[in-house]
Amino acid sequence: MRIAVVDIGTNSTRLLVADVDPAAGTVRELERRSEVTRLGAGLEASGRLSDEAMARVFATLDGYLEITDAVGGVAVRRAVLTSATRDAANGPQFSARVRDDYGFDARTIPGEEEARLSFLGATSSRDPEGGEQIVVLDIGGGSTEFIVGRGRAVEFHVSTQAGVVRHSERHLHHDPPLPAELDALARDVRATFAAAVPEELRASTGAMIAVAGTATSMAAIDQALEPYDPARVDGYRVSLAACERISQRLAAMTDAERREVAGLHPQRAPTIVAGSLFIIEAVRAFGLDAAEVSEHDILYGVALDAAAAAAR
Question: pLDDT tens digit string along 38-57?
Fold first, then answer.
């Protein structure tokens, strides 16, 4: 079954067109795109999605619609909207326009559903009978999710109000950021993560799978990938030591300098300093020494979920 999925997040708008077999749990990518649209820019202060931010998303969706139509044969079109749309006073109106103007079944999903779909996507290529307790880390622009489980079963999940757009706007006011700003951001994130996940659960978790743009960027930077190669990113283990080294390097640069870093998409330069600190604090919180980076994230989870629903 051919599925088109759009994930409209706080920082990026992403597309997946794939042939999905829900019985086998397989996803064969036909097209995959990502654009940094910063829907959540200014939301922390205003409580609303700005006209400029929404226009960036709509311009991206115009292009995605052309891609989807060119592929053809799409049976289901699903759009998921997450933290920024959940939090914004005008989020329902924005979601309605995505549905009405672009023909996607647009759903603003709660944190619980976002966690379930992210875990489904991240574990889609793993043994469904696996017994190791793992945590899926999904760092977004407006929220960060921790999903702990075994096999395909979620045992614990939490969505925190910590995101790389939100916290960059909250803490980082100089370019490059000041040491005091970096320390304040790290303390904020550290306290949020520690409060969100019980200590005994963190101690019993043996591995971390990190999904979404911050994690894939860290893997690409660590390998100096030019151009970006998803095959070399998916499954790559980025060590805590490498994350610390990369974070220190990026924090010492200006935004313009970060845009020239091999492996980093230039549009992610404004939020990657915060993102690097997020992944460091998450790995430390679980007492691990590395995170496995996965390209199979909520896009895969939504595609599998939508195909299963359509097949019933």
Answer: 999 999 889 999 999 999 99
φ/ψ of residue 164, rounded to 5: -70, -30
Residue carrying the six token digits 């326009």: 97
Note whether 265 and 236 are within 8 A (CB).
no
pLDDT band at 131 (very low <50, low <70, confident <90, very high): confident
What is the spatial distance between Cα 212 and Cα 72, in angstroms, rounded to a whole number?
A: 27
| Cβ-contact 207, 179 below 8 angstroms | no
Structure tokens at 72: 């053809």
Mean pLDDT for 121-134 is: 82
- β 134-139/105-108 pair status: unpaired
CA–CA gap between residue 275 and residue 258 (Å, rounded): 13
Using alpha carbons only, how large is the chain's radius of gyration in Å? 18
d(CA 154, CA 121): 12
- 3-state percent breakdown (helix, strand, coil) of the chain, nearest 5: 50, 25, 30
**Cis amide leading into 270 (omega within 30):** no
For residues 271 and 141, give the distance between their C-alpha atoms in angstroms, rounded to a whole number: 8
Q: What is the DSSP string of 119-165?
A: HHHHTTTS-TT--S-EEEEEE-SS-EEEEEEETTEEEEEEEES--HH
Does pTM surpass 0.85? no
Instruction: Classify 103 as helix, strand or coil.
Output: coil
Q: What are phi and psi of 283, to 5 degrees?
A: -65, -45
Which long-range contacts (C-beta less than 8 Å, at least 24 apart) are formed by 219-223?
219/263, 219/293, 220/263, 220/264, 221/246, 221/261, 221/262, 221/263, 221/264, 222/246, 222/263, 223/263
Rounded Cα distance, 299 and 5, in Å? 6
- The whole-number average pLDDT for the span 57-76 is 96
Residue 28 contacts by C-beta under 8 Å, 6 or more apart in sequence?
Answer: 18, 19, 20
Residue 102: φ, ψ to 5°: -120, -5
Per-residue pLDDT of 239-260, as tens digits, reads 999 999 999 999 999 999 999 9
Residue type for position 280: I
| Distance separating alpha carbons of residues 98 and 56, to the nearest angstrom | 13
